[in-house]
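Sample 3 of the quickstart, ligand NDP:
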Amino acid sequence: MKILLLGSNGQVGWELQRALAPLGEITAPTRTETGGVCGDLTRPDRLAATVRQVAPDVIVNAAAYTAVDQAESEPELAHAINATAPEVLAAEAQALGAWLVHYSTDYVFDGTGADPWSEDDATGPLNVYGQTKREGEAAIQASGCRHLIFRTSWVYASRGRNFIRTMLRLAADRAALQVIDDQFGAPTGAELIADTTAQILSQPLDRAEISGLYHLAAAGETTWHGFARLVIATARDAGWPVRVTDQAIEAVPTEAFPTAARRPGNSRLNCRKLETTFGLRMPDWRGGALRALDEILACETTGGSA
Ligand code: NDP
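Result:
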């Protein structure tokens, strides 16, 4: 299988390089044109030419404009990367007969209610990021190409900047913390997203009916406050220098931290469609979070830079 992987330096893309490796030959272009291939999503002409040159069986697009607050002041750039580029990839996939794997977000929903969102539920993004991600989904769906769109939530990884690392730093520096407790979702490891993608791509892809949109998130739910408490308690038990006590991690509403972009309160995703279609079971969010935390703590202790 020939795979064209875009965004290979991001949280999910990095894990995809590992998880997809046994499936075939991976071409993972960077944004800089090298050897006639270019992975810059702001250059539709170069992107299309790259797909034609590589002629992959599967295009995996893990690249995205993910700066949620910044997107409010850069809507054109967010639209180019999150909507126009997927549209170009979908047109090329359709012309080639290739599959397009693409990632989207819980932020396509308006966050009302308390039920987990299903794939058929009406979308209603609250911010530019969510709007552009929805436009990307719609463009792929309209293209007629064979596709797998995976909507996921609250992505973390042991590598790069992320919520776990931020909480470790704050817990060591401060005697008290405030963390949002009225947004609900499932922290989902980049590792789980990549491994699930690989599992699915290793199944027979000749079933045209599997083409579609799926929710892909860890099982269970928490809030950012619940996530922070798990991280900090585990770090303390592991001997990490934690100043803040459990009692001093204050649960606060979203309004306590005004941000440029509005965020949904309900980010729960119902993953039953993915589980039944592909015979998979999404594991509870805590397992992956504890593994990533373990890796980060080991790396920090040995002076590495994950
Ligand atoms: P990251 O922000 O970690 O990575 C995004 C990647 O996109 C980076 O490698 C970045 O490159 C690349 N990129 C950005 N702009 C361009 C461009 N113009 N051309 C080429 N590449 C570009 O994202 P995640 O791995 O966390 O996200 C993966 C997917 O999951 C995305 O579709 C995202 O929308 C979705 N998602 C993410 C969530 C999250 O909490 N992070 C939640 C829900 C869904 P560089 O490293 O050079 O900047």
